[in-house]
Specification:
This protein is mainly alpha-helical. Helices cover 64% and strands 4% of the residues. Strands 2-3-4-1-5 form a 5-stranded parallel β-sheet, with helices on both faces. A two-stranded antiparallel ribbon has the order 6-7. 52% of the residues are buried.
């Protein structure tokens, strides 16, 4: 048998790449059902896409033990898919050695197709995610000064890119072999995308080992996820006795006896890889395939599959084995020149080694000219025979050669972390730190942490150790709060070495940030305050920490000295003389403090406006700024939200969403931005939009972890939104299902006040006694802190309603207090809402007067829903005192505004008020008030019978624009051309069906022949 014959036989069984390029050369044995399933999946994808289908994706999986033939089946799927006209086939393979190389699998899978797009199409496919997906996929370098990427942001960006790419390259078949060895970054996205792929013309095909013990510990959570998502799932069984006998006789001839074949089958347990390996041993030992030699098979099988260092040396020789070691280090898609340099062989020597390795069926050549192992089991066997000293030394050589070849530190770093530690090489430490920074720029924090842990083990110089710990803590900032806290505490520990003053300030702020996000707000505030007291030589750093301490105290659920803290913040604010970022941060905190305390709104807005620079966040205080984090601009936006400057708040929150998406921050950052926008929309009365944003925020929060502070915020405002939309039972079910009731979050304040929201919910589901208890407790807690903002926490007004039935005088006292606090605060929405709530406990003319004042105030505010409620309440109150005409007008206004707000329950209540007294449930609109002036201009011409083309000439407008305006006129008038005059109350003109010049309504001639006619 020739070398080529041997190589071909091994590849046909083990699935080397050339098997895919040689259809029908070797029949797959005992895999008919799996092949039929694969062919059916490919046929279904192509057939349904050709019929116009889009949501036709499936996941096809092949699982089994090592060597069972998974790779062979995948190459057959590739062959089948490539035969389909127009199909795009993408392929990648996980590698045991490349498990720690971020995005290794996805780069194999997507680089070829994305790199082949023309520039215009590339931009369309990438959209706004180019600066996120591009660097992660190795398609471009991160921009100068780029920020670290959130891994979830990269995954979201990949989702977007694939939803754009799939229809352009459909039908799309994406094949991944050895999924169990896929790097975590790729595996996390693939398991997530398997759900979304059902909505696209994509067939996913995965092969992996079925025993979870064969999966790295970090990947095991994804095993069950992938298995559960498969629509076509195949666990490959061992080959039958007949199939193995056929393989034996194809190799050794028909002289192989049945008894020998039976024992052979038992020894290899029907495993195709072991069949081939044992056949090689039988042939090399020139063992006759007869029954009396059967007892030798088991011993030969041990040699065939359990290759030791001595076995490989005997088989390959030292020089060739060293090349094989280098190849095993490189993993998959092995560059010959790199393997030669790592193994310190000349070009001629490397060629001889390759020739020997191919002859021994160890390596094979890929279509792109590189090398790969015939089977991953062979690569593992060779790598594991390396003596430890040799292995660490060769990894060091590999790191240097990869970097010298221009492949960069990212590729070299997986070898650097495998080198021997303990030498204290500063150059190695610097490289590892640079590699960590590059990993963070592509959204791979775990890889960055491996580099930094290895740098600490080197170890670094004593003067650098604390900085490495600081970098290690920051690397986990977006993904692992516990690790971040531990590492930053070590970095700040003087026993670990000195940390530069500026880094001490930043490390303290980062530590406080993570503590706050974990709900430890008191500890976060104390950490900042204590470090601020120690920071003497850096005034800006001290001010930064003081501002952060005030910020975390403000978001605590409760505090011991709220009024005293507010006084200290006011004194600090008065001492400021500049407008640096730290000064503006203090101003922002003061604006929020005054807002919560219910101090005059004008004063809070004065501080807030001083923070901005021409209406925008200044440099250093941006949403993605690393110095302050997103909490500070969020605090500023909240101040605007509760001071009736909602448009300004929405501009800030819109910027946040865009900037977080561009930066690839798709976790808590974007979730909080959605919450803030939902809150602003709720305050404006755009309830449907508010609900959408809040549900998005809640989904993102639940994806990150259970019951985070973000989830509490989102659920609270969503409950309020559902009540406003007329769905109190749904709001109740949401609150109870989530646990939105006392004692609320253990440490963090809910935005807005949770107890006030809960009391309002109890009122909405007709539980006044419970509402009274909850709201009384809320008021007591807020009074202790000196917080009297009636929009943030409308406890007093709702408590008045809860008490009105049993304690009317006490109810009036609370209602009057609410109005007084609102008037002190001074915003139109606060005063109007407080008056409206007060009116609910009064009746007759007094209720009317209160509501008339409420409507007047709310009509000057951006609070659309509150205005709509006040209008309906006033209409109902007027009806009760007999002023039906006035009642009808206010109810109609309330209905129109409530419809705009999507407040369906309010619309129904207003219509019932009208219907109960025989009034029309809807106003008959005057179409003349509905037309814009440009629409009137064309309408007057149309009534006189002027055709569209003449109107266009007269008014000097494009014909298309005239036709659009006429369409709007007919739609609003509820009439076509013939009844337009009557509908608009205009005298009819002399109309000619074709107009004076024979032109129809679209400007085409109606007389004579059609264009091109005869």
């Amino acid at each position: 048998m020739t070398e080529r014959d041997n190589e071909f036989r091994a590849e046909a069984v083990s699935g080397g790449p050339e098997a895919a390029a040689a259809p029908n050369r070797v029949r797959l044995r005992d895999r008919d059902a799996e092949l039929r399933s694969a062919e059916a999946a490919v046929d279904k994808l192509c057939r349904e896409f050709a019929a116009g289908g889009t949501e036709i994706g499936e996941l096809l999986t092949f699982s089994g033990r090592p060597g069972i033939g998974k790779t062979t089946l995948l190459h057959e799927v590739r062959r089948l898919a490539k035969l389909r006209p127009g199909a795009t086939v993408l392929f990648a393979r996980g590698g045991e050695r490349q498990f720690n190389e971020p995005y290794h699998v996805l780069r194999q899978l997507l680089q070829p197709v994305l790199g082949s797009l023309k520039p215009g199409e590339f931009r369309q496919v990438m959209g706004t995610w180019e600066e996120v997906v591009g660097p992660a996929m190795g398609l471009k370098q991160p921009k100068q000064g780029a920020r670290r990427l959130d891994p979830q942001g990269v995954r979201d960006g990949l989702d977007y890119v694939l939803t754009q790419l799939a229809p352009r390259r459909a039908p799309l078949v994406m094949i991944v072999d050895d999924l169990h060895w896929a790097d975590l970054e790729s595996l996390a996205w693939l398991s997530q995308f398997a759900v979304r792929a059902r909505e696209l013309p994509v067939l996913l095909v995965f092969a992996y080992r079925d025993d979870i013990a064969d999966w790295p510990a970090e990947s095991q959570d994804h095993h069950s996820a992938v298995t559960g998502l498969a629509t076509r799932k195949h666990e490959l069984s061992r080959l039958s006795l007949v199939a193995v006998t056929d393989m034996i006789r194809a190799e050794l001839g028909d002289r192989a006896e049945d008894a020998f074949c039976y024992e052979f089958w038992n020894v290899v347990n029907g495993n195709p890889f072991e069949v081939v390996a044992l056949l090689d041993q039988v042939r090399d030992q020139e063992l006759d395939p007869v029954e009396e030699n059967s007892h030798q098979l088991r011993e030969l099988a041990v040699d065939a599959t359990g290759m030791t260092l001595k076995s490989w040396l005997d088989r390959l020789g030292a020089t060739t084995l060293r090349f094989a070691w280098a190849a095993a280090m490189l993993g998959t898609d092995i560059r010959q020149d790199l393997a030669a340099r790592i193994s310190t062989q000349s070009g001629e020597g490397a060629r001889e080694s390759i020739k020997a390795l191919r002859k021994q069926r160890v390596l094979t050549q890929t279509p792109n000219g590189n090398l790969e192992f015939v089977h991953p089991l062979i690569a593992s066997s060779i790598y594991n025979t390396m003596p430890e000293a040799t292995r660490t030394g060769m990894h060091g050589v590999a790191a240097a050669e990869i970097e010298n070849a221009g492949l960069g530190l990212l590729a070299a770093s997986r070898h650097l972390v495998e080198t021997f530690a303990g030498e204290g090489d500063d150059r190695t430490v610097r490289k590892l730190r640079r590699a960590a920074a590059e990993h963070l720029l592509i959204g791979a924090p775990e890889a960055a942490q491996r580099c930094l842990h290895r740098a600490l083990a080197e170890p670094p110089d004593d003067l650098d150790r604390a900085e490495v710990l600081y970098e290690l803590g920051c690397s986990a900032l977006l993904t692992d709060p516990i690790a971040t806290v531990n590492q930053l505490k070590l970095a700040l520990d003087p026993e670990e070495g000195p940390l530069r003053a500026s880094l001490r300030v930043d490390a303290t702020f980062r530590l406080s940030e993570v503590l706050a996000h974990s709900g430890e707000l008191r500890q976060a505030a104390v950490v900042c305050q204590e470090e601020a007291e120690r920071t003497v030589s850096d005034p800006a750093g001290r001010l930064r920490l003081e501002a952060a301490s005030f910020m975390w105290h403000a978001y605590r659920k409760s505090e011991e000295d709220g009024p005293a803290r507010s006084a200290r913040l006011g004194a600090l604010c008065d001492s400021l003389s500049g407008r640096d970022a730290a000064d503006r941060a203090v101003l922002a905190m003061r604006a929020w403090d005054l807002t919560l305390r219910g101090e005059p709104s004008a004063e809070a807005l004065r501080y807030a406006d001083d923070v901005l620079d021409n209406g925008r966040l200044p440099k250093g205080l941006g949403w993605t700024d690393n110095t302050w984090g997103f909490e500070l601009p969020a605090t500023l936006g909240l101040s605007y939200t509760y001071n009736d400057r909602i448009a300004q708040a929405e501009r800030l929150f819109s910027d946040a969403i865009i900037q977080f998406e561009v930066a690839g921050w798709s976790g808590a950052h974007r979730g909080f931005a959605y919450f803030l926008m939902g809150l602003a929309r709720f305050r404006r009365g755009l309830l449907a939009e508010a609900e959408d944003f809040l549900r998005r925020a809640l989904r993102l929060s639940e994806r990150i972890g259970p019951k985070l502070p973000l989830a509490w915020d989102a659920v609270g405002v969503l409950v309020d939104t559902l009540i406003a939309r007329g769905r109190p039972r749904e709001a109740w079910d949401l609150a109870i299902g989530f646990g939105f009731h006392p004692p609320y979050h253990a440490t963090a304040m809910v935005l807005p006040d949770a107890a006030s929201l809960y009391g309002k919910l109890l009122l909405a589901v007709d539980r006044p006694a419970g509402a009274a208890a909850a709201l009384t407790e809320a008021g007591a807690q807020l009074d202790l802190r000196g917080w009297h903002n009636t929009v943030w926490a409308p406890w007093a007004g709702h408590l008045a309603i809860a008490l009105a039935g049993d304690e009317p005088e006490r109810a009036r006292a609370y209602a009057r207090r609410s109005v007084a606090d609102a008037e002190r605060f001074g915003t139109a929405s606060a005063i109007g809402t407080a008056l409206r709530l007060y009116a609910q406990i009064e009746d007759g003319q007094q209720a009317v007067e209160l509501l008339e004042r409420a409507v007047a105030h709310l009509g000057q505010s951006p609070a659309g829903y509150e205005h709509a409620v006040a209008l309906v309440d006033l209409g109902a109150a007027l009806r009760r005192v007999g002023r039906l005409e006035d009642a009808q007008e206010y109810l109609y206004q309330g209905i129109e505004l409530a419809q705009h707000c999507a407040a369906d329950g309010l619309v129904d209540r207003a219509r019932r008020e009208l219907a109960n007294y025989g009034l029309r449930p809807n106003r008959l609109g005057d179409v003349r008030e509905m037309l814009s002036q440009p629409e009137w201009d064309v309408a007057r011409q149309a009534v006189r019978g002027v055709p569209p083309q003449r109107i266009a000439e007269t008014l000097d407008l494009p014909l298309s624009l005239v036709n659009r305006r006429l369409a709007a006129v007919y739609r609003k008038a509820g009439s076509g051309p013939d009844g337009l005059a009557a509908a608009l109350g205009l005298p009819p003109g002399q109309r000619d069906a074709a107009g004076a010049d024979g032109l129809g309504p679209d400007g085409l001639r109606l007389d004579g022949d059609l264009p091109g006619g005869t």
